[in-house]
Amino acid sequence: MDPYAALRIKEFNVFLGARFAMVFAWAMQFIVIEWQVYSLTKDPLSLGIIGLMEVVPAVSMALFAGHIVDQKEKRNLLVKCLLGFSVISLGLFILSWPDLSTQVSSKTILWSIYVLVFLGGIVRAFLGPTIFSLMALIVPKKLYPNAATWSSTTWQFASVLGPATAGFSIGLIGVHWSMCLIFICTLIALTAISRISRKPILNPKIGEPIFQSLKEGLQFVFKTKAILGALTLDMIAVLFGGAIALLPIYAQDILNVGAEGFGILRAAPAVGAALTMVGSTRFPLHKNAGKKLLLAIFLFGCCIIVFGLSTSFWLSVGALFISGAVDGVSMIIRQTILQLKTPDHMRGRVASVNSMFVGSSNELGAFESGATAKLMGTVTAVVFGGCMTIFTVGITTLALPSFRRLDLRKDIEEHEVAE
Length: 419
Known about the structure:
Elements: H1 10-41, H2 44-71, H3 74-95, H4 106-138, H5 144-172, H6 174-193, H7 210-223, H8 225-240, H9 247-254, H10 258-280, H11 289-309, H12 313-341, H13 347-376, H14 378-399, H15 401-404, H16 409-418
Helix pairs in contact: 1-2, 1-4, 1-5, 1-6, 2-4, 2-13, 3-4, 3-6, 4-13, 5-6, 5-10, 5-12, 8-11, 8-12, 8-13, 8-14, 9-10, 10-12, 11-12, 11-14, 13-14
Membrane topology: Multi-pass membrane protein
Keywords: Cell membrane, Membrane, Transmembrane, Transmembrane helix, Transport
Organism: Maribacter aquimaris
């Protein structure tokens, strides 16, 4: 297959540009918030609360959001999501105004940040399913694996530059103007999405009662073992491997590398994942996908343990880089499974379940890491998370033999024949 096939579609390139700006802004914003909150509190639990404030609305609204996405036109819905994101970024820009700290207490600023993060979680509940559904309407089915790879690659490149830019911009221009840069990126994403034409609604059950719709979506996910296995495995790995949330502590108190070192540490996993994804455009991962996914998450757990124990900056960077590379394998395989196994009229609901299983587990993992760091110490908490990830791989390998045998080549061939 042509590795650039999806990129030959003009609207898909516009979609990737908007996705890059969105992810860049979101990743950068989360890092700047982490830095600002830890600077205000010096409490590792406060980093966990950031994750909790986002994950609660994201999880509680996810299924409802999936139903709405399947019922509505996707381009306009994404525009509304980006408008909400822009308002939140503007609010954080105002809260980071240096003179505000002389007029308002640190506690008030802290809880105002938490409120905006909470609102961001609501936006995120709709954002993921909308993006997933819109992409499937832009490219033909036979190009889904190629498009999923490029979309994930774009996500990772934005995840590389977002955190790195955040780390350097905090040191160079401060938190306030870093937030301004984030707000500008949200406006760029909004402008790009407006260039995509409106798409047809493929759901034949418009107006279907919400509870019946949600029941149908959940039943599909739990009956489709390939989807259920991939989501469950990745959710547990991300939940217990959430060492990234503790990077401000490592940068400031353990490795002593400051804001610039923090940016490098935060970007290292995304660099590894991005390189993996670029390589996968020429070396597809469809063959023996189940075994590759299990091996990738096992290696991810090992890297988290090495990072947790390391007191060397460059060893820590290397461990995070490799963790990102194997996580990139996991992401590509998971997204390909979702695109190939999900019917068009259920994409919003399936993507919402995915956001509950995997997307929100990043923030829940951040809370778990912050809480365990508070209880047992930072290093012990990170090592514990890596061990639990490896344990999960072992249990999954034994409990789901059919998942070990998962191979996606037949599904891809069927879509090519259908086209």
